[in-house]
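Input record, target 12 of the design panel.
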């Protein structure tokens, strides 16, 4: 999958094989990010989507304008207080490395609340315990 390079508003795309298909999330295969992406957290018609500054369509993601890149920071939607931002904020110019990782589908560092860290550890421990029970049960099935 190529890194995301631009924001797109196209409704259909032509593949290299000359096949026309609905754009949607498939534009990511062409290095584009759909401005009208489907995210059920925002409602079926994006009625819950709180827009701040809009992304610039057909402009490069790496374009800096007013100290911000042309890409929303997802950490601001999930943990806004911990990341000193509000939902809808763009990546700041000083977050270039984070943006490059994000558009290349790699992880990037962002802050989480302490309760989230605790929940992550509880989840891991629970998975290991369940795996242990299933493993013991599986081994026991061979000894009978």
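The sequence produced for target 12 reads:
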């Amino acid at each position: 999958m190529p890194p995301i390079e631009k924001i797109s508003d196209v409704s259909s795309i032509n593949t290299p094989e000359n096949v026309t298909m609905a754009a949607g999330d498939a534009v990511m295969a062409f290095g584009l990010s759909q401005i009208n992406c489907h995210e059920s957290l925002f409602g079926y018609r994006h009625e819950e989507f709180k827009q701040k500054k809009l992304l610039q369509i057909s402009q490069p993601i790496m374009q800096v304008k007013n100290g911000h890149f042309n890409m929303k920071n997802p950490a601001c939607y999930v943990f806004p207080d911990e990341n000193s931002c509000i939902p809808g904020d763009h990546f700041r110019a000083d977050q270039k490395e984070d943006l490059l990782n994000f558009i290349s589908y790699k992880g990037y560092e962002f802050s989480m609340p302490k309760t989230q860290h605790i929940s992550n550890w509880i989840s891991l421990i629970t998975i290991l315990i369940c795996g242990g029970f299933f493993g013991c049960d599986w081994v026991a099935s061979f000894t009978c």
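The mean pLDDT is 86.
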